[in-house]
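Quick one: L(+)-tartrate dehydratase subunit beta from Metabacillus rhizolycopersici, structure tokens please.
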Amino acid sequence: MSKKVLTTPIKDEDLKDIRIGDIIYLTGTLVTCRDVAHRRLIEEKIPLPVDLKGKAIFHAGPIVKDHGNEKYEIISIGPTTSMRMEKFEKEFIEETGVKLIVGKGGMGKNTEEGCKTHKALHLVFPAGNAVYAATKVEQIREVHWKDLGMPESLWVCEVNEFGPLIVSIDAEGNNIFEENKVEFNKKKEEQYELISKQVRFIK
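--- reply ---
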């Protein structure tokens, strides 16, 4: 099985054969973008100071070392819970043209619709690997909205084979978390029935 690497700028056709559960890696531009940045764009209508078309965002709050003279180094960059951005993500995808949304945990129907309509992916970066993730950041090219503080600033990073990234929502709107819920609940009910028969004497 060949290693799947997506390089920015990413086009719609680059995503057509990628399905939920696939593992990919990212090379190119990755911008940290969390709650407040989403809120500024969608609720406050403040344009983002960085062009995200064909690029990737990371729901993450990095730890960054300031070397002075606008030179920065990522020390740790772990994902934050993506569901916090759920109510904004469809509009965010539509307005920015972003192609990859990376974070922790699943997202819901709003993001599914955004990914399907505008051909984007949501991907999960494995939690607990923030220091390892930092080794894949070759440089911080620029930073915006520093008034928000280190975690919420927009850190524009150049990454090389950043990953592994697990596709949780594909460009057709399929959602691995929601599909797994159906399967797991089915198994849960089956086991409940089995256990109930075995312990019926308790009732």
